[in-house]
Specification:
Helices cover 40% and strands 17% of the residues. It is an alpha/beta fold and 240 residues long. It has one domain: TIM Barrel (Alpha-Beta Barrel). It has an eight-stranded parallel sheet with strand order 7-6-5-4-3-2-1-8. The protein is globular. The two termini are 27 Å apart.
């Protein structure tokens, strides 16, 4: 218990975020239960993730495939109730590190990547839930399909037998200008509606958007998954 006490700030931070999510959802006349918080644990050690899990956090997001592979190995022989999400840019040759342990892959943005995930899913006899990543900011540094090409890619993704496309994801511009964030989040929401209508489906239900600095705006615009790292775990040390 003494070891857990040093990590109490994590669960305190998480509970504050959870309350802010609840407050914002209720302001928007939404059910708070339909919004999931992914605790983004990239660069933090497996021991920190274990402590957070022991304290009551169950959904964790990772950005780097090899780091996640190491964490999966750490937890292989431990009792835990972790739901892993992969939220970073994913190369096809790194998919093998994730399967079959990932509940949701947020960052599918090409047919080539989808094909590799589908092959791995078949080999593990599972259907892999995925989100299609859309580049709503237009920044070259960000991954994701261009919005005008999203419909064609969605059609392709829906053809893979062992992939289950359930929604869209975007990484918003890191800006203090609320108008920029709102424009990008509303673009993703409108795109989800458009795809469901034009493709004659009703399965795109998830919107993964919003991080520590803008998740409340994302909730106003329809987010069902928010990805929170710094506001839960604190500042990261990228020099490790």
């Amino acid at each position: 218990m003494e070891e857990l006490n040093q990590y109490n700030y994590i669960i305190d931070n998480f509970n504050q975020i959870r309350q802010r999510v609840r407050n914002k959802a209720e302001e928007e006349y939404r059910n708070p239960g339909e919004i999931r918080i992914v605790a983004v644990s990239k660069t933090f050690s497996s021991e920190v993730v274990k402590a957070a899990n022991d304290l009551g956090i169950f959904i964790f997001g990772e950005n780097y495939a090899q780091e996640l592979r190491d964490k999966l190995q750490f937890f292989a022989d431990k009792t835990n109730r972790i739901e892993w999400h992969f939220i970073g840019h994913l190369q096809s040759n790194k998919v093998k590190y994730l399967m079959p342990h990932i509940r949701l892959i947020h960052s599918v943005d090409s047919v080539e990547l989808a094909d590799e995930i589908n092959k791995r899913a078949i080999s593990h006899n599972k259907v892999q839930n995925i989100l299609m990543q859309v580049n709503t900011s237009g920044e070259e540094s960000k991954s994701g399909v261009e919005p005008e090409k999203a419909q064609n890619l969605a059609k392709e993704l829906l053809q893979f037998p062992n992939l289950n496309l359930i929604g869209l994801m975007t990484i918003g511009t890191f800006s203090d200008d609320e108008r920029i964030s709102r424009k990008e989040f509303s673009m993703l929401r409108n795109l989800k509606t458009e795809l469901n209508q034009t493709l004659g489906i009703d399965k795109l239900r998830e919107l993964s958007m919003g991080m520590s600095h803008d998740f409340e705006i994302a909730i106003e615009e329809g987010a069902t998954i928010v990805r929170i790292g710094t506001s839960i775990f604190g500042n990261r040390n990228y020099t490790k």
